[in-house]
Design goal:
With about 170 residues, this protein is of the alpha/beta class. It has one domain: fumarase, CATH 3.20.130.10. The chain has five helices and seven strands. β2, α2 and β3 form a beta-alpha-beta unit.
């Protein structure tokens, strides 16, 4: 298992291959369907994002209320729901994504074109993944509740490389 830390180094990223298991530590940002829609609308209006996402990791997750912990359950949502937005976000500078499930061929081509990575998080393990989150703060679109963009600090967050920067895909 490879340990990687944000900000991700492009040389290190080029060494990752589809199927590699990694433990990620550092900062990631959550964003689900509605946040993606708003980000793409901002791109269309030539406006800046409310949070700097260039070169960052977007995790397709909507954290649950936390109770007494830093964060509640925060498992991945199905990534294909973001496929229509992903090429535009990659072009705008988002480099890496975390989710679950297969992606379209168009997304795989865009990941290769922009030297990104698609990581897979274990589905059905939201409670376990929440234990890997050390801090959580809503940073954009706060009126969306769990679909707001949250800044998470994670430690040893378990992932698998789903699509590497060369376009190799564990599902194909």
């Amino acid at each position: 298992m490879k340990k990687i830390r944000t900000p991700l180094d492009s040389k290190e990223i080029r060494k990752l291959k589809a199927g590699d298991e990694v433990l990620l530590s550092g900062i990631i940002y959550t964003a689900r369907d509605e946040a993606h829609l708003r980000l793409v609308e901002l791109i269309g209006k030539s406006k800046t994002f409310p949070v700097a996402l260039k070169g960052e990791i977007v995790y397709y997750s909507g954290p649950a209320p936390s109770g007494t912990r830093v964060i509640g359950s925060c498992g991945p949502t199905t990534s294909s729901r973001m496929d229509s937005f992903t090429p535009q976000l990659l072009k705008a500078g988002v480099k890496y994504m975390i989710g679950k499930g297969a992606r379209s061929k168009e997304v795989a081509r865009a990941i290769k074109r922009y030297s990104g990575i698609y990581f897979l998080a274990p589905g059905g393990a939201g409670a376990y993944l929440s234990l890997k989150v050390k801090s959580c703060n809503a940073v954009a679109f706060k009126n969306l509740g769990p679909e707001a963009i949250y800044r998470l600090e994670v430690e040893n967050f378990p992932l698998v490389v789903g699509i590497d920067c060369k376009g190799n895909d564990v599902y194909r």
